[in-house]
Design goal:
The protein is of the alpha/beta class. The chain is 33% helix and 16% strand. Among the domains are: 64 residues; 220 residues, no CATH class. The longest helix is centred in the first third of the chain and has 44 residues. The C terminus is likely disordered.
């Protein structure tokens, strides 16, 4: 379509031509030109007014900054400003103290730049109230504890966040490795208990016992606690049963017990998040003959009276610690405000009569299954979770999804589950049953390489028969089905509605096998997606090992794919 000529330009050209021909110009035409020019100027002024206002504001800010900086050199910069800058260096994380080093990283190098910086860092209390101690193998426990006390002494009135980590140093255990009489809990945790806000400790029970048996009300500010009991010696290839044998080699780490003797968390008005763990760090060499399950210890006796403020908790986790069946449900029935729950070991179901355990606020449930024998549908049978939104079910890659588990849970809870993430193995039939049982699903992550949607499942997704509300999908797929998956994406993007009853898949990470043919198929599929424009910008294809990635903005050439294959 030809462009319409500008009326002002037409009149101006006519006037210029008349002037060349020395013909008189009519006053009416001149006035018309001036009127149109003024109107155009006014229109442009209106369009530019917001930009001019924004420019004036920016210039005003620049002028203010210049006034501030004109009289300030680095030496004259206020300590408060420097403190905020150094806070950015920590990136919201803790000061890190590592065994054999013990420097307060990342602040230590900054302290030696100049006296001004040193003073600003030392005199800014909120740089020092979050400390992480990595004891490693506990060879210099006493000096590490002293270094932590030195850091925390610089924030005498602030709440404290304290974290520790380490590994069992060998067959003699942690306590035997540390110097005689050294106990970081007695020296560091107990004296500061009144100021503790967040606590994450990885230490043997022998040391933790004194803290756990502190009188009620000892931790008035504590909001979150995560305790991991380092217990016994690590198993060896020759005798994997040696784990936790405190009588071997003079091990003094102690057998962890959670019972009525644990009084420290009673009358803790701010406590909301509680996690208990039994130390279990896999070593590929040492666990070669005993790889699948952590030690089975009765950390919690069946008749234990655990003294925690259950009604105010929002998060609860027992990692590698088995809670007896009847006791578990008796405790959970008190957790009326719980929003997230994490369990790994399921106790044997006895003859106890357990009524429905209703958790009205629970939105997130994570079950980490170590082996097939550790999972018990009967253990979870009483759970009723009307607010459940997200389910995470993880375990070894050779462990199958438990049959007849999810559908009954959804039915008795009448919940609207929107997110599922699992690393368990799903057959094609099990996957279809799962997807059909959760029509409200929005987010799905299948982390097992063998759990791949079939052509039949993709066809049913195309017709909205399965997961019509799905908008995020993370999974493995055979490369020959990429084209069919793009058909699903395009169909759903074209027909999604605003009611969210039928949603488009806006984000997807598709992992496929490695190979030249796979790369070419991915490139071809992504070329089709690129034609869809911005609505497909959240889709990516990648090799299962992450060696190459295709997204809509980065489509490699055939030669690049060939070089990747050769590599």
């Amino acid at each position: 379509m030809p462009q319409r000529p500008d009326p002002i330009e037409v009149v101006m050209q006519a006037a210029e031509q008349a002037q060349i021909n020395r013909q008189p110009i009519e006053e009416r035409e001149v006035r018309c030109v001036l009127h149109n020019v003024r109107r155009e100027v006014d229109r442009l002024d209106d369009e530019l007014a917001p930009q001019y206002a924004e420019l004036d504001g920016a210039l005003s800010k620049i002028e203010r900054v210049n006034r501030l900086l004109s009289s300030i050199t680095l030496k004259k910069m206020p300590d408060e400003v420097l403190g905020k800058i150094f806070r950015f260096c920590l990136e919201g994380g803790p000061i890190v103290l590592r065994s054999k080093d013990r420097r307060a990283m990342p602040l230590a190098p900054l302290i030696f730049v100049c006296d001004k910086w040193r003073h600003a860092i030392m005199e800014t209390p909120d740089l020092w109230n979050h400390v992480f101690l990595d004891f490693k193998e506990f060879s210099d426990t006493n000096r590490m504890t002293n270094a932590a006390l030195s850091c925390l002494s610089r924030c005498p009135s602030l709440p404290i966040c304290l974290q520790t980590d380490g590994v069992v140093p060998g067959e003699f255990g942690v306590v035997s490795r540390a110097a005689p009489g050294v106990n970081p809990v007695m020296k560091l945790v107990l004296p500061l208990a009144q100021r503790l806000q967040e606590l994450r400790l990885v230490l043997p029970y022998t040391w933790l016992q004194s803290f756990l048996q502190s009188p009620p009300g000892s931790v008035p500010l504590l909001e979150s606690v995560d305790l991991e009991f380092m217990f016994g010696v690590r198993p060896t290839n020759s005798d994997p049963r040696s784990f936790g044998d405190t009588n071997r080699h003079g091990n003094n780490d102690g057998t962890p017990v959670i019972s009525e003797d644990m009084t420290v968390f009673e009358n803790a008005p701010s406590l909301r998040r509680v996690t208990f763990r039994l130390y279990y760090r896999k070593d590929p060499d040492e666990f070669a003959s005993h790889p699948s399950s952590p030690p089975e210890l009765q950390v919690i006796p069946p008749t234990a009276q655990i003294r925690l403020p259950w009604a105010q908790l929002t998060h609860l986790a027992f990692i590698h610690i088995c809670v007896p069946f009847a006791l578990a449900h008796a405790l959970l029935q008190q957790c009326v405000n719980l929003t997230s729950l994490n369990l790994t070991s399921f106790g044997r179901v006895d003859n106890s009569v357990v009524t429905n355990t209703v958790l009205p606020s629970l939105k997130f449930l994570q079950l980490d299954i170590m082996n097939g024998a550790s999972f018990s549908r009967e253990y979870l049978q009483p759970l009723v979770l009307p607010a459940l939104e997200r389910l995470v079910l993880n375990g070894p890659s050779n462990l199958s999804w438990p049959p007849n588990f999810l559908s009954p849970l959804i039915a008795r809870s009448n919940c609207h589950l929107t997110s599922i993430s699992t690393s368990l193995l799903l057959t094609t039939q099990e996957m279809e049953v799962l997807l059909r049982s959760v029509p409200t699903l929005v987010d799905l992550e299948l982390g097992n390489k063998e759990s791949r949607p079939s052509s039949v499942i993709l066809e049913k997704m195309l017709g909205w028969e399965l997961v019509p509300r799905l908008s995020r999908f993370d999974f493995y797929l055979e490369s020959k089905l990429l084209s069919q998956f793009v058909d699903v994406l395009q169909f759903r993007m074209d027909r999604a509605d605003d009611s969210e009853a039928y949603a488009a898949i806006r984000m997807a990470r598709v992992q496929i096998e490695i190979g030249k043919t796979s790369a070419k198929r991915a490139k071809s599929a992504m070329t089709r997606l690129r034609a869809l424009g911005g609505i497909a910008e959240g889709i990516e294809f990648r090799s299962a090992d992450g060696f190459w990635i295709f997204d809509r903005n980065d489509i490699t050439t055939d030669s690049e794919s060939d070089s990747s294959e050769n590599s």
